[in-house]
């Protein structure tokens, strides 16, 4: 992502070293007085895929005489704070964040399914999930303060940390469906399996760099990545829904796969069988309309030659009494 208001800076999210495609978003930045310095884009998150955040400061960056501070937030949680002085910026700077080190363990960043519940949302649910599904990077123009915290003595850690030790970062939470308020979010950011790393044997602490803000303490640029699954992007109409494929009967036979051709043959065979059955059923209906007459009734009809049927369906009888009077039985 490259913002028009800050040339020379590129921030992106990648999977397998391939930057994810970005979809422009017109999402307003509510409650911010610096919305003009914020750019937002949607990206597609692949479930269980590791991801990285890539930062690049090129020679076109206009403030190379000042230091910079980079703060990165994932789902509202600050995961790192980086300081670089102006000498690094003049040479050009490229770096990335793909894992988090904590307590002697390294864990890679990854996308994971979001656990949902039908329970009522907690009282602080709004604060917890307001930035769910969001990666935010804020860049500050600053200068290193001449007053820095002095290192303090520490006791080196010698005890090995178990690989299954819980992480304090990006802890999985169960989110209420009602708290989402219709937002299409089905994934979250999490951490992969822990890998032990060498424990520091330093006897002195490394305090964070103290900075000053001569141009104001607000970020000069904020980059927001709203990560969603493919289905979520379709629901929010960020990308088009997959078109419904045409029926096999309307497809060109040369484009059908072997399985599709077999399915089409089954359908045609079933239709042919239905066409053969229908005439037989109609014939049975016509034959069932014939009136059966018992032997006694047949004898009576032969005895009275003046009795006749006008129709097999109406079963109306015309009985001729004499030459002048004719009685019609309507029963």
């Amino acid at each position: 992502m490259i913002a028009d208001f800050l040339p020379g800076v590129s921030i992106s999210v990648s999977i397998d070293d391939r930057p994810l495609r970005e979809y422009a978003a017109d999402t307003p930045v509510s409650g911010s007085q610096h919305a003009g310095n914020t750019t937002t884009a949607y990206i597609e998150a692949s479930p269980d895929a590791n991801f990285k955040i890539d930062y690049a400061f090129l020679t076109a960056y206009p403030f190379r005489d000042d230091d910079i501070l980079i703060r990165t937030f994932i789902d509202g949680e600050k995961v790192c704070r980086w300081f670089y002085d102006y000498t690094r910026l003049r040479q050009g700077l490229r770096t990335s964040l793909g894992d988090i080190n904590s307590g002697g363990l390294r864990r890679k960043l990854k996308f994971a399914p979001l656990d949902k519940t039908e329970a009522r949302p907690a009282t602080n649910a709004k604060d917890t999930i307001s930035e769910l599904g969001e990666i935010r990077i804020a860049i500050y123009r600053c200068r290193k303060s001449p007053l820095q915290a002095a290192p303090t003595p520490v006791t080196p850690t010698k005890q090995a940390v178990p690989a299954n030790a819980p992480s304090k970062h990006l802890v999985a939470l169960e989110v209420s469906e009602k708290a989402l308020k219709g937002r299409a979010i089905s994934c979250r950011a999490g951490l992969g399996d822990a890998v032990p790393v060498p424990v520091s044997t330093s006897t002195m602490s490394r305090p964070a760099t103290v900075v000053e803000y001569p141009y104001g303490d607000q970020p000069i640029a904020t980059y927001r990545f709203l990560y969603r699954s493919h289905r979520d992007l379709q629901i929010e109409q960020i990308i088009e829904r997959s078109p419904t494929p045409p029926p096999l009967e309307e497809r060109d036979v040369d484009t059908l796969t072997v399985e599709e051709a077999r399915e089409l043959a089954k359908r045609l065979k079933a239709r042919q069988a239905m066409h053969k059955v229908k005439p037989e059923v109609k014939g049975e209906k016509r034959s069932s309309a014939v009136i059966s007459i018992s032997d006694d009734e047949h004898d009576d009809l032969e005895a009275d030659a003046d009795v006749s049927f006008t129709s097999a369906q109406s079963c109306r009888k015309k009985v001729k009494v004499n030459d002048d009077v004719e009685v019609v039985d309507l029963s």
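Residues 287-295, 297-316 have pLDDT under 50 and may be disordered. The radius of gyration is 40 Å.
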